[in-house]
Amino acid sequence: MANNAQTPDAILLQNYISGEETALQILIERHQSKIFGFIYSKIPDRSVCDDIFQDTFIKVIKTLRTKGYNEEGKFLPWVMRIASNLVIDYFRHNKKMPYQRETDEYSIFDFMTDSSLSIENQLIEDQVYLDIRKILDQLPEDQKEVIKMRFYEDLSFKEISEITGVSINTALGRMRYAVINLRKIVEKNNIILTN
Questions:
Q1: Spatial separation of the C-alpha atoms in residues 88 and 141, rounded to whole Å
Q2: What predicted TM-score, i.e. pTM, was given to this entire model?
């Protein structure tokens, strides 16, 4: 294969399916930083990310070998969807969601205007944070996922649709229903939202 850097993903996939093992290696090298970066953005644990990255490509290989691939050349969104599903499986298995984890670099409280919270205010803010998590946990998984990707990860609806494997309209619909359901939960529980 001359000039591998210019060979489209679809051609490399066909070459791999036809028996050329190096074609998949080229695809992995071409996209590994984006895929690994996506996984690491959800799970900032290098060893877990390595495992999920490997599991992603094990699934890719199994699907390609069983002739189950039919994404019409959209290799990267397909692999990202596999990685996303494995990340979700990881959190389901461990009973925790990524947006619940704070790191040294990011905390919801970093964005609040009062940087010198009193102990009382800190307790109130902690409680608000817990309440928001509980409210979001009441949403169906697909609606919770779109809220998390849109607001916590700042992804566009186009990116959300590619990662989740649904149309942009479906992603927008899930967001609409999530907002409707959040309003119902807030009203049902008499929660007062203030600016």
A1: 10
A2: 0.49
Residue span(s) of the chain under CATH 1.10.1740.10 come to: 4-93
Query: Is there a contact between 174 and 141 (Cβ–Cβ < 8 Å)?
Result: no
Return d(Cα 73, Cα 12) in angstroms, integer: 10
Give the fold, CATH level 3, of 98-188.
Arc Repressor Mutant, subunit A (1.10.10)
Residues of the chain with CATH 1.10.10.10: 98-188
Q: Two tokens at 186?
A: 């807030």
Tokens of 9: 């993903």
Residues of the chain with pLDDT under 50: 1-2, 97-101, 108-116, 195
Q: Are 149 and 163 in contact (CB under 8 A)?
A: yes
19 alpha carbon, distance to own chain's centre: 32
As given in the structure block, the two tokens for residue 138 are: 């009441």
**Fold that domain 4-93 belongs to in CATH:** Rna Polymerase Sigma Factor; Chain: A (1.10.1740)
21-42 and 9-17 helices, crossing angle to 10°: 120
